[in-house]
Amino acid sequence: MMWSSSFDLHCHTTHSDGALSVEELADAMAMQQVRVWSITDHDTIASWDEAKVAAKKHNMRFIPGVELTCDVGLPSDEDVLKTKGLSRAASSWHLLAYFPYDPIPEGLEKFCEWLSPLRDDRVPRMLEMIDKVNGFGMPLNPDDVLSRAEGSVGRPHLAEAMVDAGHVESVNEAFEKWIGDGRPCNVERPKPSIADVTALVHAAGGITSLAHPRYYGVDYETLIQHLKASGVDAVEAFHRSHTDDDRHRLWNLAKHYGLGVTVGSDFHSFERGHRPGNMPVVVKNLPELIASE
Ligand SMILES: [Zn+2]
Ligand SMILES: [Zn+2]
Fold first, then answer.
1. Nearest ligand to the C-alpha of residue 40?
2. pLDDT tens-place string over residues 18-52
3. Where are the chain's structural domains?
4. CB of 159 within 8 A of CB of 171?
5. What spacing in Å lies between the alpha carbon of 215 and ligand 1's midpoint?
6. Rounded to the nearest whole angstrom, what is the distance from the C-alpha of residue 17 to the centroid of ligand 2?
7. Are the CB atoms for 261 and 285 separated by under 8 Å?
8. What proportions of the chain, in percent to the nearest 5, are helix, strand and coil?
9. How do beta strands 7-8 and 234-239 pair?
10. At residue 293, does pLDDT exceed 60?
11. DSSP 54-107
C-alpha cells in the first residue's frame, strides 16, 4: 500500500473565496512538495489557464477542477450531527469535478454553458433581494450593490451597501436579521442535484467526488450508497477537517462500494489556519484518471 502526500485536489483562490492568487497558491503548493494539484474554486473555472502556466513553472501536474454547489441529496440525521459535534447540516452539498485528461470538447462546451448561468443568475437573484430589502422600508439602489462587485455579485456586497446606507450597524446584523439563510430578504438560488451535475461532467470527460462528507450529517454508509446510485465517482474521504475515524470509515466504505477516494486541504488562507498539501492518501484508491501519470 502506498501512501503519498503529494496530492492536493481541493483549494481556493481569489477567483472565489480564497485569499491567494493562483500564482501565490502555486508557489505555496510547490513549497509543500505537492506534485499533483487541482484548484476547485466555487462554481467557476476562471483559474484554469493561469494555473496551467503556474503549475508548469513548478513542474507540478495540474488537474483542472471546480467545486459545484448542489442541492442537499439526503436529509440529515440528528444523531449523526450530534456525534460529529455539528449544530446543523450544511445547506448545500458540494461536488468536486475534475478533468484530468483532455476533456471532450462538445461536452466541455455544454458544461461551461451550464456553469455560466450559475454565475449570471446571481444578478436577477440580487435584484429580487434588493426589492425585498426596499419592501421592508430600507431604500437601496441596485447600483449601490452591483457596483461593489468585481466579479460576481453576492450577499456580502448587499450587506455592505445596507451598512453604508445606515439600515444596519454591521454586515453581521444584515445577515442575522435580513439576508442570511432563512431570513426574510434572502432569495434561494435553485440548486442542481449531484446526479444531474455528474452526468454533465461525465459527458465532458470528467469525474466527480463529493466534498467534505463530514458536514452533511448523513450516516456514511447511506451516503456512499446514494453517491453510487447517483453515478458519482469518488468521495473526499481525506479532507482536512476529517478525523482519523472519518477517513478510515469513508475509505473502507468507498472500497466496498467501488468508489474512488480523493484528498484535499480545502485551503482558503493562512489566516484561517489552513495549510496547503501535507495530506496523505492511498494512491491506488484515487480515481484511476488521477492516480495514473
Ligand atoms: Zn466545500
Ligand atoms: Zn472547498
1. 2
2. 999 999 999 999 999 999 999 999 999 999 999 99
3. 3-118+193-291, 122-179
4. yes
5. 9
6. 9
7. yes
8. 45, 15, 45
9. unpaired
10. no
11. HHHHTTPEE--EEEEEE---S---HHHHHHHT-SS--SSEEEEEE--S---HHH
Residue 166 CA to ligand 2 centre (angstroms):
33
CA 240 to ligand 2 center in whole angstroms = 10
CA–CA separation, 129 and 43 (whole Å)? 21
CA–CA dist 275, 271 (Å, integer): 10
Q: Residue 210: nearest ligand to its CA? A: 1
**Cβ neighbour number for residue 31 with a 10 Å cutoff:** 11
CA of 211 to the centre of ligand 1 (A): 6
Ligand 2 centroid to 40 CA: how many Å? 7
Sheet strand arrangement including 260-264: 65-70, 93-98, 207-210, 234-239, 260-264
For the segment(s) 122-179, the CATH number from 3.40.50, 3.30.1380, 1.10.150, 1.10.760 is 1.10.150
Identify which ligand lies nearest to the alpha carbon of 10. Answer: 2
Cβ contacts of 273 within 8 Å, gap of 6 or more: none
Query: Whose atoms come closest to the Cα of 39: which ligand?
Result: 2
* Distance from the alpha carbon of residue 10 to the mean position of ligand 2, in angstroms: 6
Q: Which ligand is nearest to the CA of 9?
A: 2
Half-sphere exposure of 151 toward its Cβ, with a 13 Å CA cutoff?
13
> What spacing in Å lies between the alpha carbon of 41 and ligand 2's midpoint?
7
pLDDT band at 123 (very low <50, low <70, confident <90, very high): confident
- How much distance in Å is there from the Cα of 65 to the middle of ligand 2? 11
Number of H helices, E strands in the chain: 12, 10
Residues 227-240: tens digit of each pLDDT: 999 999 999 999 99
CATH code of the domain made up of 3-118+193-291: 3.20.20.140
Going from the Cα of 115 to the center of ligand 1, the distance in angstroms, rounded, reads 17
Averaged over 166-170, what is the pLDDT? Answer: 96
